[in-house]
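Let's practice the habit of predicting before peeking. Look at the sequence and jot down your guess about where helices and strands might fall. Then scroll down.
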Amino acid sequence: MQIVEVGPRDGLQNETAPIPTAAKITFINALSVSGVGEIEVSAFVSPRWVPQLSDATEVLAGITRQPGVVYSVLVPNRQGLEQALAARVDKVSVFTAASETFNRKNINTTIEGSIRRFQPVVAQARDAGLPVRGYVSTAFWCAFEGKIEPQAVLDVVDRLVDIGIDEVAISDTIGKATPDEVKRLLDLLAGRLPVSRIAGHFHDTYGRGVDNVLAAWSAGIRTIDASVGGLGGCPYAPGASGNVATDDVVAALEKQGIATGVDRQRLAEAFDILRPFRVDDRRTLPADGSPACAACQFSTGKVCCKRYQAGN
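Done guessing? Here is the structure:
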């Protein structure tokens, strides 16, 4: 199973406390040596709507890229794609939904309007040699419309394939899907699209995230999104809690004898880098220290002792 770590983008986008750019860089560098196959680093979106990700260019310029790890970003339009190309990303993602209401509230257009909007983005990305993922949000349930029928999802996926999308991420945006619903939809999709082009993206609002990952595995899906520590949620989906936690997914898969290549200890070390910035009582960084000092058990808050190195 390949794990796509979405914490730096889908996780942090919903954090209300500012996360320093340097902390994000250290966080991503730690994730890069954890064994995940892909990291969704950030998004080139309007800072007015997603201020937490306004430093995408700086983050991408500052990280240490590891061989074999794919570094991807979300882009909403051609301007975002131009920024992504300048930042030398490995892959880009665009997004739509299977719910008309969610689409209007999220990106202020219809489903068809969203596809028309990012069609030139897909074409330009493919001309540049970049693979493109298409997120299909609210693929099972919508906070506004209720249950989404599988045919609606199939119709959206067909349109995405028609315009050249390489991979579709079937997303349980509000975390309400059951394993049976997941298996049913993915079996239908597998009948018209190679499973190698399908990813699963689950939230854990109702505590079914891990079970839904296992249901996706049984349907032949071998790419799963997850967020370290369960970071995340969607600001435009009432009731959506965090993404399914990467550490929980890895543990569940390993229990089933399914290899992921991910080191859970290194995941924990990566998450610890963010921990001080997510609470009100934040430890002061030493003037000469890195953001990792804030998570270091040896830190006195006065001087960097050099005893903590993320990922080692």
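How did you do? Confidence is low (pLDDT under 50) at residues 234-240, 280-286, 289-297, 308-312.
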